[in-house]
Amino acid sequence: MSLSLSTNQPRAPDNADDGVWLECIDCGDTFAPFEDVRYTCDDCDGLLEVRYADLPTFDDFEGQGVWRYAAALPFDAGVSIQEGATPLYEVPRLEDDIGVETLRIKHEGMNPTGSFKDRGMTVGVRVAAELGVDRLACASTGNTSAALAAYGSRGGMETLVLLPAGKVAAGKIAQASLHGARILEVDGNFDACLDIVQELAAGGEAYLLNSLNPFRLEGQKTIGLEILEGFLADYDAVPDRIVLPVGNAGNTSALYKAFRELVQAGELAEGDVPKLTGVQAEGAAPMVEAIENGADEVQRWDDVETRATAIRIGNPVNAPKALPGIRETGGTAVAVSDEAITDAQRDLAGEGIGVEPASAASVAGLRKLRSEGIVDDDERVACLTTGHLLKDPDAAAAAGREPEPVSADTAGVLEHLQN
Ligand SMILES: *Cc1c(COP(=O)(O)O)cnc(C)c1O
Ligand SMILES: [Zn+2]
To answer: In 112-238, at which residue ranges do the beta strands (DSSP E only) sit?
Structure first.
């Protein structure tokens, strides 16, 4: 295995600010990070990546949560609501049932607004403050809007969110609403919302905080760093594989970047990099299609449908970063049915872990890959669960047991329990 992107040694260009700069992943052009607002390369429109002259070692990390990893981030502190430091649960019954050596669940639903999006927002909103913008915007399948609304209001900024009408889970809209975002319900899918908000951002209407924004991914790198530190503490080894749901493929890109930076810093051997394994719903699986076809680019799916609304995405914007991440780590991508997602949601709930449907896709994907023999029985695996059960109460109630009506007296209740 060779991590091609890890070979270029960091060397600060003239436009770096305190050892931090933006670099185009396609043409290599560099840009000053905080002088003006920019989301893609001026020259070729390629995706940008945040680069550092100094890469941290594990010894540089101190404290708790996302900002423990400040040495791997562009700032020492951010607009914070104590995000990160999420549990890495043991699940012995599920581990046995699926049949792997070790299975741990990294439950990102335990973040302040109930999803991993908080990790990206604490950094992204800090950058917005640095740039001096006063309005933030995103397109969202729900969780990004909840995080943007909460972190934006904490940072004292206006927030604007574009959501696909009728396709966002109730808990997420409630959060965006109470935290004071202006919610625009678009008569179209997520991909249409993102097209619009990108044009608004290009016109200077607002600062874009979708995962196209490279600073979001810096915060999300810390998921990978926490998983690695957790496994090193418990097993003295990093996981063989990390399985995660894929929507816009921001996390896939962010974890890959975290690992590349550790390899560059000499903290992780190339052969030890965990295999990044992406899972999509069958009705929204353009990344899986590209991996299966060995394609260099993802073809946009115009019609997408799945109960896992957080990953109901047909045009994963971070695909150019994520495809090499999956391939160069020796991972793969797999599609699972909505039924398998609901089953996995119940499996996790049976271990006391409440997740929303998209999150359960990781466990459904692991089960499928294990049954196909693609995942070995001796593997140490971490599954990422991205959002909390309460985000989508309707899906949880539909997947769970029906309430049973009883009369308002003990005798009646006892009689009912006998049946
Ligand atoms: C945003 C989100 C995803 C998709 O993550 P990407 O980084 O865009 O691939 C998955 N699950 C949940 C719950 C999310 O909110
Ligand atoms: Zn470029």
So the answer is: 135-139, 158-164, 182-186, 207-208
Q: Pick the residue whose CA is nearest to atom 4 on ligand 1.
A: 247
Cut 0.90: pTM above it: yes
Ligand 1 nearest atom to the CA of residue 251, by list position: 7
Q: What is the mean pLDDT of residues 78-95?
A: 98
Considering the domain architecture, whether residues 198 and 251 belong to the same structural domain is answered as no
Question: How much helix, strand and coil, in percent to the nearest 5, is found in the chain?
Answer: 45, 15, 40
Q: pLDDT per residue over 25-55, tens digit each?
A: 999 999 999 999 999 999 999 999 999 999 9
Number of domains in the chain: 2
Instruction: Output the residue whose Cα is nearest ligand 1's atom 1.
Output: 310
Is residue 202, in this structure, part of any structural domain at all? yes
Residue that finishes a domain, picked among 212, 246, 265? 212
**Residue length of the chain:** 419
Atom of ligand 1 nearest to the CA of 278: 9
* The last residue of a domain, from among 183, 212, 241: 212
pLDDT digits (tens, 9 = 90+) for 175-222: 999 999 999 999 999 999 999 999 999 999 999 999 999 999 999 999
Question: DSSP class of residue 9?
Answer: P
- State the ligand closest to the CA atom of 26: 2
Pocket probe mutation, ligand 1, options 251, 326, 336, max atoms within 8 Å of Cβ? 251
Q: Strand order of the sheet with strand 158-164?
A: 182-186, 158-164, 135-139, 207-208
Residue with tokens 């678009």: 186
CATH number at residue 166: 3.40.50.1100
**Ligand 1 center to 244 CA (angstroms):** 9
Asked if 103 and 134 sit in the same domain, the reply is no
Q: Are residues 205 and 226 in the same domain?
A: no
Is 105 found in the same domain as 254?
yes
